[in-house]
Amino acid sequence: PVQILTYLDGVVKVEETELKPRVGFLYPVVTHNISVFINATRERDSGQYICTVNVVDDATPMGRNVGVINLTVLVPPAVPACQLHGNPTVGANVTLSCSSKKGKPSPMYQWQRTDPTPQVFFPPAQDLARGTLRLTNLSLEMSGLYVCTAENRAGFEKCSIVLEV
């Protein structure tokens, strides 16, 4: 564990960590609870945080004045990359893929065709976790704009690809 914040004898001390410019006590320590804030959170701020309160002349056994919280910083998906795999000719099979390099938790992917006729896809043609859409026995009517949405609890991003059969 690395100590990041201390209140001792009326003095607040912020240790030299990457959190130093972004962390502090939410309220004046002597007047309120000991809530802490972290501004401009980053994925690497995720982890276990421990608050220890030591009061002079307190008869409480060691370890009783300890609070533990696990922090998970969510990360919205990065703009995904859309790709076409295969030769888009009449009667052929192709796979559209969609992949985002960032996202916590891992994004789920949803494909849909927007133009000329909106269409939504379901498994097994679409794999929501892998971001793939398999189109079989292509016809001219399957041409159009296909949009992939990468989404998790923190947000979403989209990419698109034009399929010309």
Overall number of domains: 2
Please identify the top-level CATH class of the largest domain.
Mainly Beta
Helical content class: under 10%
Query: Mean pLDDT, nearest integer?
Result: 91
Rg, rounded, reads 26 Å
Distance between the amino and carboxyl termini: 58 Å
CATH architecture of the largest domain: Sandwich
Tell me, what's the shape? Answer: rod-shaped
**Strand arrangement, largest sheet?**
7-8-12-11
| CATH evolutionary superfamily of the largest domain | Immunoglobulins
Number of strands: 14
What does this structure look like?
The chain has 165 residues and is mainly beta. The chain has 2 domains: 5-71, no CATH class; 81-163, Immunoglobulins (Immunoglobulin-like, Sandwich), CATH 2.60.40. The chain contains no helices and 14 strands. The protein has strands spanning 5-8, 11-14, 23-25, 36-38, 47-52, 66-71, 81-85, 94-99, 108-115, 119-120, 126-127, 132-135, 144-152, 155-163. The chain has a 4-stranded antiparallel β-sheet with strand order 7-8-12-11, with no helix packed on it. It is rod-shaped, with a radius of gyration of 26 Å.
